[in-house]
Design goal:
Distance between the termini: 33 Å
Structural class: alpha/beta
Strand order of the largest sheet: 2-3-1-4-11-5
Mean pLDDT: 96
Low-confidence stretches: none
CATH superfamily of the largest domain: Periplasmic binding protein-like II
Bound molecules: 1-O-pyrophosphono-5-O-phosphono-alpha-D-ribofuranose
Oligomer: single chain
Number of domains: 2
CATH architecture of the largest domain: 3-Layer(aba) Sandwich
Shape: elongated
CATH class of the largest domain: Alpha Beta
Number of strands: 11
Largest sheet: 6 strands, mixed
Radius of gyration: 19 Å
CATH topology of the largest domain: D-Maltodextrin-Binding Protein, domain 2
Length: 215
Amino acid sequence: MITIALSKGRLAEQALDLLEKAGYDVSAGREKSRKLILEDPNTGLRFILAKPADVPTYVEYGAADLGVVGKDTLLEEGRQLYEVIDLGFGKCRMCVAGPAELKGKLDTIPNKRVGTKYPNITRAYFEGVKKESVEIIKLNGSVELAPLIGLSEVIVDIVESGRTLYENGLDVLETVADISARVVVNRVSMTMKADEIKPMIAKLKEQVEIMNKEG
Ligand code: PRP
């Protein structure tokens, strides 16, 4: 039995579609209910539906053998696991954003306050990459509000279409990282369940290559 941790929401649907294209029966995973464990003993697959930020935790501890999760969560959580496939969907960018008038002037503001749901990514970027110390203010959502209301000068957040920023008079100031969905594998499962997991990785990679060719 292979246990797959899915990030509840759109990413889960896309992950199931991909597994199906790769030849797996994922009907158990599509059950519309409030159940959090969905399994079919005949297919040897068990799906668990977790909050995206918890997927790497389930996989690191071996509660799940494999997981599908955004690179943003992986960067933030910094868990010990194998990242084996870039699935190419769930694409977006992790950005520093703020009022449009700060474009090109980010480095001129001293002692910046940065609002974000991603304190580790923010610290790694400002302190690690830019060698600049900033005050990080942890938020849990609607992060764009922070510079609008004077809580912080800038934010570090996910930008997908750019619509949330645009409609709030904000703009991308710098790109921190390109994000997309990844397949991660527990380090012990990779060896102990190699007979099941390695072919699964190979089939998924094949499908991703087809998808990429199709554009
Ligand atoms: C995410 C992100 C941005 C928005 C970006 O928020 O934090 O706010 O989506 O998307 P866009 O560029 O297409 O507008 P989410 O919807 O996950 O909610 P949150 O505010 O609770 O984080």
